[in-house]
Amino acid sequence: MSDASPVVTPAIQITGVTHVFRGKGRELAVLDNVSLDLPTGGFVSLVGPSGCGKSTLLRILAGLLAPDQGSAAVAGVSTLLRPGLVSYMPQKDLLLPWRRALANATLGAEVGGAPPAQARARAAALFERFGLAGFERSWPAQLSGGMRQRLALLRTFLISRPVLLLDEPFGALDAITRREMHTWLQQVLRDDERPGEAVRSVLFVTHDIEEALLLSDRVVVMSPRPGRVVAEVSVAFARPRSASLVVSAEFVALKATLLAALERR
Amino acid sequence: MRGTSAQAAHWALRSARELTPAGLLLATLVGLWELWVRLNGTQPYILPAPTRIWDAFLQTRGTLPDHIVTTMSEAMLGLAIAAGAGILLAAAIAVSPLLRRILYPVLVLSQNIPLVVMAPLLIVWLGFGMAPKIVIVALIGVFPICISTSEGLLGADREMIDLVRGMGGRTWATLRYVRIPAAVPAFFGGLKIASAYAVLGAVIGEWVGASSGLGIFITRAQASFRVDRVFVAVIIVALISIALFAAVQLAARLASPWLYIRQNDE
Ligand SMILES: Nc1ncnc2c1ncn2[C@@H]1O[C@H](COP(=O)(O)OP(=O)(O)OP(=O)(O)O)[C@@H](O)[C@H]1O
Ligand SMILES: [Mg+2]
User: Are residues A232 and A222 part of one domain?
Assistant: First the structure.
């Protein structure tokens, strides 16, 4: 390698992560030697059967759980037991019941030490975008399931980290809203590319293969528990991608490949 | 701010409607009591009629306010100290397992010292003023407040704590954004229990020895066989207790509005 080409550090680098949950006399092997790279600015989806360890992998990347073996790094920095390096959206919305919608959206910024007034202004400007306009002063208990999820996503977006970990962000939405959110998420990520700030890289967990194909540059398929990476499929469709892409022949072919990988195990 | 006063009026009306059955029952009982005393010619030093108690109230109107102020001050100051100490102890218990193991048994033990033993001792140590009574109220109140608050702090949702940790928050951030707000309803639960016993605690303290307060008022009335005056004092103690409890209830509502969404319908 010559001096002129800089070494490219991936946004996320997971190497040989293995994890076993140990309870009272019970051992549950959840992740088995999982390795995965995510290039800067990339969008990678993780699909796999329920219980295969997807959320566990995200918790490890978020620095909340130390794996038994292996390493995980964000932009070259190890995240093991070092929370705060990524914007992480857990599978549950986990809105704080004692904060109104707007205050929930600004939580990450406030924890990060941003002035509350400034955080509120930034968040309020995005409420419209996230389909939450008019609900700034609502309590989480007054929001619908889909609204709660969008609020959780907004909260995650407002944590300005270059890496986003999204754990089934659209799981609670109906098919129609989900499709809207796909268009919208691609748009938001594109608009987000501001000069001077690092592009966001996304690791996206989902059960929905179409969703994964529509949004990603690459789809990683995991086996049932203990989760291993069993297939990786590159998705080369030009962006922006429209919803009608899902009926194209190439798309259907890729979908068949993924389904086969999921079933092969 | 649409209709804050309308809301208050609505609330007052609803509470009035809720209280009507209890009020009717009480009025009936008082009526029967009056009738019983008159028909049997019961002596007033055995059981005074309600009308006689009312007369006793009118006679003592001049001296009562001072006693009421004393007792209420003791109860409220004692509660405030119990709240402060309860929160501090709860925080200590919540942040340190070692402190938890030290403090819990001591707290439980402190609840098993009989008040009748404690009160005279405190008066010997602290004199006949308000201080020993405030200490008694605080001693009674600190236990429920501390236990309930520490359970609130410790019982906060683990996943919410992890959410804040995932945002880069340390211990203080998890306390500020999750544990403390989660403990607010629990704290008020403890404060409600403490407030229900506060006035009684102050009165028992005064009873043992004081120069002012409803407790000493009762002692004097008893010494002169003025059972009607004893009744006056007892009724006032009950009313103060109810008022204190209601005030705490209101404070709880104001401090945790998210728990009362449906009722507020806001
Ligand atoms: N803290 C924990 N302690 C013990 N076992 C756990 C813990 N967290 C998860 N597990 C177990 O690990 C396995 C993987 O869980 P995980 O949440 O990672 O699955 P998942 O792939 O995200 O599933 P889903 O698609 O249903 O969300 C499950 O069997 C779960 O019961
Ligand atoms: Mg999951």
Answer: yes
| Strand order, beta sheet including A218-222 | A87-89, A163-167, A201-206, A43-47, A218-222, A229-234
Check if A53 has its Cβ closer than 6 Å to any atom of ligand 1: yes
> Residue B177 — left, alpha, or beta (φ > 0 → left; ψ -120 to 50 → alpha)?
alpha
Is residue A156 located within the same domain as residue A166?
A: no
Q: How many CA atoms lie within 13 A of B64 on its CB side?
A: 16
Any atom of ligand 1 within 6 Å of the Cβ of A19:
no
Interface contact B165-A112, CB threshold 8 A: no
Q: Is residue A80 part of a domain?
A: yes
Query: Does the predicted model carry a pTM greater than 0.90?
Result: no
Q: Which of A188, A194, A199 is nearest to A42 (CA)?
A: A199
CATH topology of domain B65-265: MetI-like fold (1.10.3720)
How many domains does chain A contain in total? 2
- pLDDT tens track of chain A, all 265 residues? 444 555 678 899 999 999 999 988 899 999 999 999 999 999 999 999 999 999 999 999 999 999 999 999 999 999 999 999 999 999 999 999 999 999 999 999 999 988 889 899 999 998 988 889 999 999 999 999 889 999 999 999 898 888 999 999 998 788 888 888 888 888 878 876 665 566 889 999 998 999 999 999 999 999 998 999 999 999 999 988 888 898 999 999 999 999 999 987 5
